[in-house]
Amino acid sequence: MSELMKTPLNAAHRTLNAKMVDFGGWDMPVQYPAGIIAEHEAVRTRAGLFDVSHMGEIRVKGPGALALVEHLTPNAVSKLAIGQVHYTAFLYENGTFVDDLLVYREGDEEFLLVVNAGNSDKDYAWVQQHAPAFDCTVVNESPTTGQIALQGPLSLEILQPLTATQLEPIGYYFFTHGEVAGIKCLISRTGYTGEDGFELYCAGGDTERLWNAVMAAGTPKGLLPAGLGCRNTLRLECKMALYGHEIDDTIHALEAGLGWIVKLDHGDFIGREALLAAKAAPAPRKLVGFKTLEKRDIARDHMPVVQDGKQVGFVTSAAPSPTCGINLGLAYVPTELAKIGGTIQVEIRGRAVNTEIIPTPFYKRTR
Amino acid sequence: MFPADLKYTKDHEWLKPAGDGTALVGITHYAQEALGDVVFVDLPEAGTSFAEGEEFGTVESVKTVSELNMPAAGEILEVNASLGDHPEAVNEDPYGKGWMVKVKLAGDLAGLLDATAYAALVSAESH
Fold it and tell me: Rounded CA gap, A100 and A148, in Å?
C-alpha cells in the first residue's frame, strides 16, 4: 500500500491523541479522546473544530470561467453574487455524479470549486478535460491549501475576537476575505453539520497556527476538536449527501433528492438532457429516511432493503443518532414503498427488520 | 491495560475464572477503544450453551458493530443486565462494570492467551 497523505495538521492531531484512520488515502482523525458522542454533542450545543484540509480546491479564472462552471454544474452559477457560495455537482451526461461540490464566486471571472478529497484528482481531470473550449485557466490549489471548519452555535462568539472582519453580517452561504489570528483566510459561513459555523481556508503552512488559535479561543467555551466520526453522524441527521453513499456514478441528481440544485431552465449543462428525460418519467426509486423500531436494531451503510425475501433497495448511510437518540438511516427504495409512515425491511446480519419511513431531515436547528 | 489475572482471545475478549468452574467474559480495553462509544450490547438468554469461538452476541458502537465470540465452551448463567441502560460501561470500565456474561465452563482454557502474550498481539496489531 502506498503511504497515506497527510494534512498540515497531522502532528496536531497526534498531539491531541486522535485515533487516526485511512480515509480515502488520507491519514485523518476519526475521533479524539472525548469520543464521537461527546464531539457530536459539542457541535450541536457549543462548537467543534474539524480539520478538512484534505478537501480539494480548484480555481477557475478568466473571461470564460463563468461559462465553463455553468457547463460543468447544474445550479444557476450566473445568479451567484460575488461573495456568495452554493452547493452543486459535477454530473456525467447520464445525470449521475462525478462529485458534489461548493462553488465560491470570487469575482466576475473567478470561481473557487471545493470538492471531495477522495475525488479531487478525478475532479481536476474532469475540469481540465472540458476547459480547453473556454477562455480560462484551471489551477489545482489543493496541495497548498489548508482548511478548518468551526461548527456549532458558539462559532461566531469564538471566532469574532480573533478577527477585525465583522462576522455577524456574513449570511449563510456567503464568504469574505480577512485575517484570523493574523493569518490571511477565506472566511466562509458554510458547513456540513447543520449548525451555524465558519469554514476557514488558508495557506497550507498557516493551518496549524490557525487551528491552535481557534482551539485556544474556543476551549474555554467548551469547543472540542471533532473528528470524521461525528462529522458523519452530524451530516446524516441533516440528510446531507456523502459521495459513495447517497450519491455516486450510478445515481442521478433527481433520485438523490437534489432537484433543488438542478436548474433545468437555466441554460445547458452536462447531464441536463438525461435529467429532463428523468423528470418526464415516473421515478423508479427514491431516497427515504427511516428509523428502526427496536434499540437493538441498528442498520449500517450498504445493508440491503428487502421485501418478501428479495432485495429491492439499499441503505446508503445509517447509524445510531446521538441527537435524536434513535437508530436512523437513509435508503433507496422503490417509489411505491416511499411513503412517510410506511414500513420497509432492512436486512441486518441475516434478519429482516421492520423500519418506519419518517420525515427528513431528521434534525433541523432552531435558529 | 491488560490485567494479569485474566485470560484473553485473539479476538479481544477476556475471561476471568472465578475458581469455581464459572467465569466472567467481556471485551478488552483495546477492543473498546477500537470500537469507540458503545451504544448497545446484544446478549443471549441465560441457559444457552456455546462452543469455544462461537458467536454469542454483538456489541454496537456509533461507528460500527463487532461480534462477540466465546473464549471457552460453556453455558450462560447470567448476563449483565445493567448494560441495557448503561452500555457506556463497556468503554469506561471494560474489566469491571462492563462485563457481559457469566458462564459455567464446559471445557479447558488451554486455547487462551495470558496477559503478556495478549499484550504482544495487540502491540503487533497496532503497528
Answer: 19
Hey, are the CB atoms on A296 and B37 less than 8 Å from each other?
A: no
Report the SS3 class of residue B111: coil
- Using CB atoms, pick whichever of B36, B37, B40 lies closest to residue A295: B40
Q: Is B81 on the interface with A (CB under 8 A)?
A: no
- Structural domain count of chain B: 1
Q: What is the number of other CB atoms lying within 10 angstroms of the CB of residue A128?
A: 12
Return the pLDDT at B107.
86
Question: Average pLDDT in the A310-337 region?
Answer: 97
For residue B65, being part of any structural domain is answered with yes
Question: What is the distance between the alpha carbons of residues A227 and A49, in angstroms, rounded to a whole number?
Answer: 8
Residues in chain B closer than 8 A to A322 (CB atoms)? 62
Q: Does B37 contact chain A (CB < 8 Å)?
A: yes
Question: Domain A282-358 maps to which CATH number in 2.40.30.110, 2.30.40.10, 2.130.10.10, 3.40.50.1170?
Answer: 2.40.30.110
Mutate to test the interface with A, among B29, B38, B56, B62 (most CBs of A within 10 A): B62
* Per-residue model confidence (pLDDT) at position B1: 84
B17: cis peptide before it, omega within 30°? no
How do residues A161-172 score in pLDDT, each as one tens digit? 999 999 999 999
Nearest-Cα residue of chain B relative to residue A233 = B62
CA angle B88, A353, A303 (to 5 degrees): 80
Q: ipTM, 2 decimals?
A: 0.90
**Helix (H, G, I), strand (E, B), or coil: what is residue A206?**
helix
Task: Give the domain ranges of chain A.
Answer: 1-280, 282-358
Rounded CA-CA distance A227/A52 in Å is 10
Supply the mean pLDDT for chain A. 97
Q: Are B64 and A31 inside 8 Å of each other by CB? A: no
Q: What is the pTM of this model?
A: 0.95
C-alpha closest to that of A111 among A73, A54, A166, A149: A73
Nearest beta carbon to residue A300 from set B40, B42, B65: B65
Minimal CA–CA distance to A193: which of A224, A218, A168, A167?
A: A224
* pLDDT per position as a tens digit, B98-109: 999 999 999 889
Instruction: State whether A319 and B58 contact (CB < 8 Å).
Output: no
Read off φ and ψ for residue A336, nearest 5 degrees: -65, -20
Instruction: Enter the CATH code of domain A1-280.
Output: 3.30.1360.120
Q: Is residue B114 part of a domain?
A: no
Q: What residues make up the domain containing B19?
A: 7-108
